[in-house]
Amino acid sequence: MPDSVLHRPLELSPDVSVRPEPFGALLYSFGTRRLSFLKDRRLLDVVQALATSDTAQQACASAGVAPESLPAFDAALSRLLRTGLLVERAA
Amino acid sequence: MTTAVPLVEHFALGLDAPICLTWELTYACNLACAHCLSSSGRRDPRELSTDECKAVIDELQRMQVFYVNIGGGEPTVRSDFWELLDYATSHDVGVKFSTNGIKVDAEAARRIAANSYVDIQISLDGATADVNDAVRGVGSYDTAVRALGHLHDAGVRPKLSVVCTRQNLGQLDEFKALADRYGAQLRLTRLRPSGRGADVWDELHPTADQQRELYDWLVANGEDVLTGDSFFHLAAYGESLPGLNLCGAGRVVCLIDPVGDVYACPFAIADQFHAGNVRSEGGFAKVWRESPLFLELREPQSGGACASCDAYDACRGGCMAAKFFTGLPLDGPDPECVKGFGELALSKVEPGTAPRTTVDHSHKGGVRGGPVLVPLSLRRPDKPCDESPVSREVFA
Prior knowledge:
A: Outer Surface Protein A, domain 3; three-stranded antiparallel beta sheet
């Protein structure tokens, strides 16, 4: 999958504030002033694990994402990267 | 998994903390706008002190409230306004504040430009001085435009915030042009019959035809124009406007007033919507999480008289405050229901029986250059009860 972001080192944008909620999380970007939602608690776990993981895939693994679920998480992380909520960490 | 689809069902049942809230810092105001939602004018001697305000900000930081919409009154007349603004943004609480521009000089504009966590909204209710000053007072147009100029010079992209009225809805394109001229983003909000707005609502609220034109204009202009989720009752026309499209009162938003009283929403300053006070034990968090009023608002709503309407899923019965202050039952149609059920319901309300707020800080005797509505009345009332019996006295 050429557009996969799983091999990349990602992190939350420094502009973004994350608030866990029972349904997942609210994300507010102070850069764009936009509110976004994570509709899945595990995706929140993945996002929170990014900072201490070398790659997005490693973050998924440490959040307990099963291999068959990886494509869905890959797609979700791609969207978060595209909208600027996640950024690529400098190596 | 991530989605732009609003999680309306979760939000309707309430969150552990508001997404944002409105915080009126003072009831003091240099103006005496005819339609002031908070009946502002005079400072309340019980106003929260600087330290009390900072304690509220600390609490909002702990609750991870993303930002506060600061208003008043005119918030910038508080001598500690800039101190509180800096305190909030250095404690992870973003600030959007509304002002008539009275204190926005070149230095203030530079200060705002330097803080990326601050948004400023300049209030203007006419694209021309005659239309604006008739409701906001003589000179208020010039004050607002001068502020826009200073902000533009400092490189700030302010919001130009307009309460839509019968008198200014024909000026939407002029508002857009004015906003563009100063690099501002246009923000349109709905007139509510709250505070002094109750006195002039009959005369100022848009006609049914104007509502339709406004809706079409908003759909055409999309996300370029902000609405603060103000017009969700118009979703009943078909397509939803950008935003959460629900009444967030006590569920995802609320109001803290200048004396620390917490109300369900900024348009609902009345005992019936009073949830508690931030000065009480447990502070704001306890009010938000435990007040019986808020818990009740988070219960699933039945839809009442609107339940059988095919538009109910879109508009959800409209605005609670608009119903309350026009004397309509809360589980019935909005007074500006696009299907016309509101007008029908209003015709059955005995004139003068709509509930009134007891919280009134209006200037006694008005202010110099204060608004004079009479010349602006563009049409005769359809019938005598269309005009509030007290609307004239306010401007005497």
